[in-house]
Design a protein that fits this description.
By secondary structure, this protein is mainly alpha-helical. It has one domain: Na+/H+ antiporter like fold, CATH 1.20.1530. Helix content is about 80%, strand content about 0%. It has 16 helices and no strands. The longest helix has about 45 residues.
Amino acid sequence: MVSALILVFLALSLGYIFSEISKRLGLPRVVGQIFTGLILGVPIIKDYLLGEENLKIFSFLANLGIILLFYYVGLETNFRAFTKNIKELALISFFNTAIPLILGILIMKFVFGFTALISIIIGICLAVSAQSVSLDILEEMKALKSRIGNLIIGAGAVDDIIEIVLVAVIFSLFQVAVSHQSLLQLLLEILIFLVIIIASRNWIIPYGLSYFDREKSSTARFTGSLLIVILIASLAEFLGLGLILGAMIAGIIVRQTIFGEKKIPDWEEHDIANSVHLFSFGFLIPLFFVWVGMNADLTLIGSQIGFILLLLVISIVGTVGGSLIAVLLSGGQWREGWIVGWGLTPKGDIELVIAALALSSGIISTGIFTSLVITAFLTTVISSIMFKKLLGKTKSKLKGKAKIIKDRSHSVS
């Protein structure tokens, strides 16, 4: 068994190498990080690298990465971002989430006979998406300000709100299932946490942010925001609501506090978000995705191949089909809905967190977890390739039409 420091070095270095390879192939970095975990999770390699002590250390770092991921999600959740074209964006978000969610739950429950909780977990994992993957492609192809880009960014903002609700529901179900507490006790704990949130929003966080802003230092602001998220996440865990939900709510409160307090400058939100992004996405979150790959059992893929393909179909058909239906209902073009659907299909963050927590809680088996990881991996690869290809064709057609119009104008003149 190697030391924990060597294990972290291997995970980060290999994760970076495979991320760069993925990027050169036109794929998101998360694909390379999960692939690194799949390699390190091969039984012979895993037995050599992972002892009980190393596993505890790596799991702790991965869980810390999850907390900062959800904190960052909260910081980036802008409730005002989707006020324009709200009807179309809401339709897209509703259909591309509801169709795979409902299909997943019904098929898992009535075809495979899973429990209601497991069926809901799988359904949510198939329904949520990672728009950041498509945003990288849009930025690369200089299409962020196009109508397709605006639809994906706007629908992504609404999706974030829906995902917050879904995460809150699923973590509440986790708590009931794991601790066997009564619904009344859960509601009482939620009520106490709501009181803490109100107190945090009105007194604790504004005072804390103002205090740490005295030095006008990015380091001090990052330290202060880190203390805030750890405090609220710990209180949420103490009340049985889970670290993750507390971290996300902390991010939302910090953002809303900054924009609501005149004495705290708006740019501080970006400063804090940039610091959290740098630390978490540069160190802890890659370790989490490597950890996800390491916990997938590749020996089960052969026996789970049919199940994986079914999950893949539900995820892609549900999301792409739902987006297409929504765009058409809003009066948009068929091709727009087709491209937006593929742009909203990638997986790779929240659904893997849910799957990982369900596995560690003993709610789902290693076989189901492995199937969800491979499905997220394949969905992200396929959708990224399709989205980039379709976006490229659309840009080429628009350039062609512009050239024809320009030539005609010259001939007329």
